[in-house]
Amino acid sequence: MTLSSPPMSRLTHRFRSMGVDGVIVAPADADEAVAEARRTLDAWEGRFSRFDPASELSQLNARAGSNVGIPISLEMTSAIGTAITAARATDGLFDPLLGARMVELGYDRTYEDLSDGGTVRPSVWVTGRWQTIDLDPVARTVRLPPGTELDFGGLAKGMAVDDALAVVAGVAGFAAVSLGGDLAVHGVPPDRTEWIIELDGPGKPTVGLGSGGLATSSVLRRRWTNGGVPRHHLLDPRTGMPAETGLVQVTVVAASCAQAEVAAKASLLLGPDRGSEFLRDRRLAGVLIDINGVERRVPA
Amino acid sequence: MAGQLPKPGGGAHRDETRARLQRWKSGIVAATAALIIGFWAFVSGSVANAAASADPSAAHAPAVTTPDQGFFDHAPPMSDATGQVPVLKSHGS
Lengths: 300, 93
Description:
The complex is a heterodimer. By secondary structure, chain A is an alpha+beta fold. Chain A has one domain: ApbE-like domains (T-fold, Roll). Chain A contains six helices and 17 strands. Chain A has helices at residues 31-48, 56-61, 74-89, 99-104, 154-169, 257-281, and strands spanning 10-17, 20-27, 70-71, 134-136, 141-143, 175-179, 182-186, 195-199, 206-209, 212-218, 223-226, 229-232, 235-236, 241-242, 247-254, 285-290, 295-298. In chain A, the strands form five sheets. In chain A, strands 1-2-6-7-10-15-16-17 form an eight-stranded antiparallel β-sheet, covered by helices on one side. A three-stranded antiparallel β-sheet of chain A has the order 3-5-4, with helices on one face. In chain A, α1 (31-48) packs antiparallel against α5 and α5 packs across α6 (257-281). Chain B is built from two helices and one strand, in the order ααβ. Chain B starts with 9 loop residues before the first helix and ends with a strand. At the A-B interface, β2, α3, β6, β8 and β9 of A face α2 and β1 of B. β8 of chain A pairs parallel with β1 of chain B.
């Protein structure tokens, strides 16, 4: 790099979306694409929020248990299909039907508005009900089992990030889109050799990536009390209760943000040893931090 | 039968009939085998479904030794990046 060819300046755009802080990093001349990417994120939020009664997700959840297939949008069809594939790929460690359970445990409104509520003694939990989601991708209809609610959790956020990045990547040589620290990158800024990401944890560990997505699953945030009982948002689908596995945080690098989201959650739920094995088996790189703050890195 | 001419094509006809019978036999054996295999697969599937219905957790037990490549694509590498100035943060949500 010489002074006569200064690096294309990059701009960082900050905003709120899907209940978290959003960041888009892109070349200074990509404003229009960035605006379109933000509209893409807004559209995802409008369709997939479980806290907005008017969202397609809320409307669909209200009709769980219907005997007939409920017509859904192409985007919802895609998200449910992806969620079922993710559930199969993780043997149900990713479960898109935890919405009603989350409400039962007190996470019934946006995190900012949470108070001590919900059922202190939750009902008997039945595992694996995602296997009975009846999706017809051709007719674009779905039937959800009674008493359940779809909650895509991080998966919808990851898919939104991947979608928004694709918008900017179409016109810019480099870009990064992040929602709450779950992100996807395209190209590399001229003044960098890779994207450097700082993680939570002792010593603020860093990782670098040149492409793909990165997501962190953590039980250190989004905590609340439920009848005085501490809760967090990462439910273990095997028990229906907040996960206690010996890990507090897992960060995964994958081909996309959506894939990283699913892998990070599954790895955290499996604990230090089996979580590492899960990533190694799938040739995914990750950083696992246990309850003592000890960091373990798994190379791809 | 002296002086009686053999029917035209009689030997060839018997050979052809024998070959046809042999083909039928082979077909019947193959069809029977397919039926047995199909029935076995049906029964196995029914038993597995019944077991899963009776005990959902049995069908749900995580099996990390059989990775499903249908969802996770080939992942890019992750570097250590120690000491470098971060562009973004990932703290989990």
